Amino acid sequence: MASQLTLKEHHEIRIKKARNAQNRLRRLAGQVGLSPENCQRVQSACAQAAALFGSELWWKGDNAHGMVGRREEVQKLVNQEARLTTGSFRTINQGALSLESGIKPAVSQLENRLRRFALRLASLPRGDQARELVGASDSALGQRLQSALGCWNGREDTVLLEVASPLDASTMIEEETTAVLEANQLDRPGLTIFTDGSRLENGATGYAVTWKNGTPWRGHKTHMGWGHL
């Protein structure tokens, strides 16, 4: 954001850029013929991103003073995006238009961006100056960020685990057939742990752990997310 601009001037410039981007997308969609799904994605990446850039700083809530006009400007842009995506007329009901296009209303998008911004700041390590902004009593923005998080109380911490001492145990890497035979042994003393991890073609990764201490088997499996090793 340009430091010499006020938040109002910044918002007006971003809306203008978003309208210009939408006009170019309208011509592109008419010439090339985009599917509704691709049209919605392109508009989200171009027009919406341009209009809402920096909105976390000026958005104060749906009922706050001075927000009605800005909200309506963003909503008008959203309606135009939805009509371009679905090919609907201007007279269509806005609720049906939002449902068919898959584009969320302006208030939902603004609130979600503010909430995500607050969460990113609150997730920073303790001592970071940006983190201290959330909930700061002398900052109106800090109060809005805390309100956006709802139940956040400032107690989240980034914890670095200590280096674990070596286990007094034997480590074996076995193939599936050998591991099954090993698991079926009944006279194994002490605690035995089996673990394995995998990654699917779509990037989803996870691992599972099973252990036997005595007669019953117990286990735990965890989804690690996407794109991890």
Walk me through the structure.
- This protein is mostly helical and 229 residues long.
- It has two domains: 7-149, no CATH class; 176-226, no CATH class.
- The protein is 50% helix and 12% strand.
- The protein has a three-stranded antiparallel sheet, with no helix packed on it.
- Helix 1 (7-32) runs antiparallel to helix 2 (36-52) and helix 2 (36-52) runs antiparallel to helix 4 (67-86).
- The longest helix has 26 residues, at 7-32.
- It is elongated and about 75 Å long.
- The model has no long low-confidence stretch (mean pLDDT 78).
H/I helix tally: 9
How many β strands by DSSP?
3
Into which percentage range does the β-strand content fall? 5-15%
Number of domains as seen in the coordinates: 2
Low-confidence stretches: none
Helix content estimate: 40-55%
Order of helices and strands: HHHHHHHHHEEE
C-alpha end-to-end distance: 36 Å
Strand order of the largest sheet: 1-2-3
Question: What's the average pLDDT?
Answer: 78
Based on secondary structure, the structural category is mainly alpha
Give a quick account of the main beta sheet: strands, pairing sense, barrel closure. 3 strands, antiparallel
The outline comes out as elongated
Q: What does the radius of gyration come to?
A: 26 Å
